[in-house]
Amino acid sequence: MKLVSIGYGNMVAAERIISLISPDSAPIKRLIQESRDTGMAIDATYGRKTRTVIIMDSGHVVLSAIVTDTLAARINGSGGNEEDE
User: CA–CA separation, 71 vs 77, rounded Å?
Assistant: First the structure.
């Protein structure tokens, strides 16, 4: 199982990720609120601005303060920089 750092010492299983989404659109904001209401949201931002919404195959919605491009690079194995944390 390959783990991917989503910032601040938190990791998720790369094989379980369905998509990485920017949180700016209204439908994604509704998705975040619905997942919070049902207890399926995992907030890994440590109080910082949410920059990526990670949709997992279990239905969980993980919020990360790392930008989407950096997380995509980490998943693809090219590392990504740490300055976005």
Answer: 10
